[in-house]
Amino acid sequence: MSSSHAPAACEAQVRRGRPIVVSVLAGEQLRETGIVKLLEKLPGLSVHPFSTGTRSDVVVADLTGRSGQTMRPLIESHETYGSAVVVIADESVEAELTALAAAGVTSILHVADATWSNLLAAIRRTLGGEEAAPPRVRADLDDQLRSVRVGRTAAAIRLGLSEREIAVLRHLSEGLDTSEITKAMKISERTVKYILWGVMRRFSLRNRVHAVAFAIRAGVL
User: Fold this and answer.
1) What is the average pLDDT across 20-29?
2) Do 86 and 122 touch, CB atoms closer than 8 A?
3) CA 105/CA 67 separation, integer angstroms
């Protein structure tokens, strides 16, 4: 089954009373579970975590912060079962635009826009047969990523944050502790603490959670 026929086939399944099989792939277990629970509320869907070799009509793939290795199972699922793919993405997949098209991607949400309502709307569009052609998919994602990069850069300049300060804040937002940030950035723990202290002092932030929340609200992360 080709990607151009997958949504139409899904719609036909609903009319025949058979559930549409939706699988969810995410890097974090908590996020995967949350998406599964959300989709389980929609009638006519059979929802489960993604598993290689298991048929899916639609795959919801949260590729935030993940490497290109994630693309292979998505492509295989698309080639074997004609699975349509709804992607949640960030800058980490920018180098995988061609692979995204090959994986049968029908809709892309940047992580900053991936509200539950937007996710459900994307799935409904896919089930209704409103596919985006691969060139459109690549162009849309590229435009979204470029817009987010420009916005984040402008926010960082406005606040006077350095690339190193932003990197530390980003790692904090991903749940890393001081020792893990040290390994990721290849700097000493003392340097990490000094960077955080400098940010918190400049902006009168109380703790690390406050620092991450401040960076998100300011549009840096």
Assistant:
1) 85
2) yes
3) 17
What is the spatial distance between Cα 53 and Cα 43, in angstroms, rounded to a whole number? 25
Q: Is the pTM of this model over 0.85?
A: no
What is the residue type of 36? V
- Indicate the pLDDT class of residue 4, thresholds 50, 70 and 90: very low
The model's pLDDT over 108-143, given as tens digits with 9 standing for 90+, comes to: 887 777 777 787 788 777 776 655 545 555 566 666
Q: How far is the C-alpha of 5 from the C-alpha of 22, rounded, in Å? A: 16
